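Section handout, structural biology tutorial.
Before the tutorial, make sure you can parse a SMILES string by hand: atoms, branches in parentheses, ring closures as digits. In the record below the ligand is fe (ii) ion, and the chain has 457 residues. In the tutorial you will relate the predicted structure tokens back to the input. Do not try to memorize them.
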Amino acid sequence: VAVTTNPYLAGNYAPVADEATAFDLPVTGTVPVELEGRWLRNGPNPFGAVDPATHHWFIGDGMVHGVRLRGGRAEWYRNRWVRSDRIAAALGEAPRGGPDPGERDFGPNTHVAGFAGRTWALVEGGATPVELTYDLDTVGRNDFDGTLPGPFSAHPKYDPGTGELHAMTYAWPDLVDHLRYVVVGPDGRVRRTVEVPVTDMVMVHDMSLTARYAVVYDLPVTVELDMVVAGSRFPFRWNPDHPARVGLLPRHGQAGDITWCPVSPCYVFHPLNAYDTGDGRVVVDVCRYDTMFDTDRLGPFGDGTATLDRWIIDPATATVTEERIDDRAHEFPRHDPRVAGRPHRYGYTAGVDPATAAVFTATYNIDLATGQVTAHDHGPGRGGAEPVFVPRSGSTDEGDGWLLVAVYDANTDTSELVILDATDLAAAPVARVRLPRRVPHGFHGSWVPDTSVAPPA
Ligand SMILES: [Fe+2]
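Predicted structure of the complex:
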């Protein structure tokens, strides 16, 4: 079927055309004085022309947007393409260097985070992580200083207890018959890998981490050879013949120690959080799609949207109990980082409605103890992307903090960084920072305090 328009290039999916730097951004409301650091967001922003008939949302070149907050001010905004060698050359710049990218000369487009004192742009599927400067310029590809044996992930899980980063990685065609679980130490060097056999070359976007287990999502989206032969840059498709299952890998175990548990056919990009129960089970909350890349091969929203579900995994019986938490469409789930891997009460998500110009809709706070969902409606034609939770300094209660959200306004074709009080989502924003460039619909980001990654001296 010929595609004449590609929804993932329209509206706020469209890339921005240039890089901008701006200082002292206009703010409505009050930026909390204690927020000293950078809000960072990564997403696809194709550099140069792409073919709308084949362009997949997930393969656009990465562009990181950032706002530096300090002293109650929004000191600066920057947006920067993550420099692949191709983009550096097109901009008349020298290549930044790092390990030879081979066929994967690609600027990671999925996540950006601080770790081991440095800023990283990340993507799954094989492209090497890229280190960025504080000001978001590309330092270069960095395989954790020569210790990463292959692919990495956009969704490593930070373990506050050990300071480690845990990732479930895959790459086609490098790893045709297994995934690789990678643990990076707080020194920024890989300290452990485990090869996890799987069939059909599955796309594994994320993982979960509890005190006892790494959770493996082996779900039926797989490489399809006819798409490879046809030259697709994103040859993944719904595969009803691939059994859906989740695996519990003991954190210090090997692949043979995994307990695999079947689940109903589905796809999950993003779990919310996961934890062990007192009786040996594991609870994961997930944004669950009935299918993925079945009828829509250009992006995630054409087959349908995701519901928020709870899976209770029992390794004693190798079964999963599935419960629906909320019927509304949820994506980009986040939680208070203080409860990572431990029981959580609150989740924060972006509402999704692909039929609206803003695509993303309200920002939700889901109280998983009571089932109550509180929404922040960003207003007509406005929608909020992934909400990033920042704990309030000095607080200890889960959920006491702020949500940092990129909000797109289709009425004006502009974006804001909106700061919400996570304990009172129905209230007006604490602050709205007007940005000089749109933040196109994209993926993930972080609050990186200056205490985590220091600004230049
Ligand atoms: Fe993701």
